[in-house]
Design goal:
single chain; 322 residues; alpha/beta; Rossmann fold; 6-stranded mixed β-sheet; 4-stranded parallel β-sheet; 49% helix
């Protein structure tokens, strides 16, 4: 299991390389949730999501020879940009393998950070190409199944507790589970009674299905609009951490998530991905269990949304109201 020491080591490595992102109180959110409510704005992190934390921590742990050989990563979302950015800053070459259906804004941004992008027909073909690149000498920077990557993400937990020492509940979205594993390890080590709630969307709920089955389950397809939650399966590493440290995993619908996204944009002025906005839906469901003195944090894990995405999301929200 991840240790607090490993997460603190990550924090020391990351100084000056990533933002210590703001944690802000929201009066509108507090009224809605019936408690003192805050947003941890990783959507304002470099590259628009939390991903550089784990990518930097992994790459800074590599030997000089490993960095010279370059890194390879697979992602159809934010990990691609985080890994590409970290590699450029550290002077390493990055090859990012992406499914052919990856939105153009993610592909363009990844190339903009200096990475070579290889498009493959689907996610399975993408992982096969990663294995080929590893065999040729590149070092894998996995999006979640790596203690060093998860420890980098866990530095968010340290920052949350510094800013909200009376933390009662925290809501964290789950893709492959590295983010929630790292944050949960930090929180449980320092403030073990905090309620930690993981959030997924229907069609990108690999962790909920794994918990129900008692083993890692591979989804046949990702059907949710929350593409950055679209890991086809979690790992034994992340499943073990969620089992041991997370109080509950909540699965919410795309339609609810879209409504939450637009509410957050209108009332807080922060644009978040569906992968972040889904946390508000889960938090709404626990409102009756809170008292006004509770301190609740929603992790806004990313904000890489295109104008085209927003237009398509609006139609989903309108259909949900009919």
């Amino acid at each position: 299991m991840l240790s607090l020491d490993l997460i603190c080591q990550a924090r020391n490595r990351l100084r000056g390389l990533v933002h210590r992102t703001p944690l802000v109180h929201s009066a509108a959110l507090s009224t809605r949730l019936g408690a003192k409510a805050f947003l941890k704005l990783e959507c304002l992190q470099k590259t628009g999501s939390f991903k550089p934390r784990g990518a930097f921590n992994k790459m800074l742990s590599l030997t000089e020879d490993e960095r010279r050989r370059g890194i390879v990563a697979v992602s159809g979302g934010n990990h691609a940009q985080g890994a590409a950015y970290a590699a450029r800053q550290l002077g390493a070459s990055a090859l990012i393998v992406m499914p052919a259906g990856t939105p153009a804004n993610y592909v363009d941004a990844t190339r903009g950070y200096g990475a070579e992008v290889v498009l493959m027909p689907d996610i399975r073909a993408a992982f096969a190409e990663v294995a080929r690149q590893q065999a040729a000498g590149r070092v894998l920077v996995h999006p979640f199944d790596d203690p060093l990557v998860a420890a980098g993400q866990g530095t968010i937990g340290l920052e949350i507790l510094e800013d909200v020492p009376d933390l009662s509940e925290v809501y964290i979205s789950i893709g492959g589970g590295g983010l929630i594993s790292g944050i949960a390890a930090a929180l449980r080590s320092i403030k073990p009674r905090v309620k930690i709630i993981g959030v997924e969307t229907v069609g990108a709920d690999a962790m909920a299905k794994a918990l129900a089955a008692g083993r890692v389950v591979e989804l046949p397809a990702i059907t949710s609009i929350a593409r950055t939650l679209g890991a086809p399966a979690v790992s034994e590493f992340t499943l073990a951490h969620v089992k041991a440290m997370v109080d509950e995993v909540v699965v919410v619908s795309d339609a609810e998530t879209v409504e939450a996204l637009f509410w957050l944009l209108e009332r807080t002025k922060y644009l978040m991905e569906p992968a972040a906005a889904c946390c508000l839906v889960a938090a709404d469901r626990r409102t009756a269990q809170r008292n006004p003195q509770d301190h609740v944090v929603l992790l806004a894990c990313g904000g890489n949304v295109s104008v085209a995405d927003l237009c398509s999301y609006r139609s989903i929200g309108e259909m949900s109201r009919k």
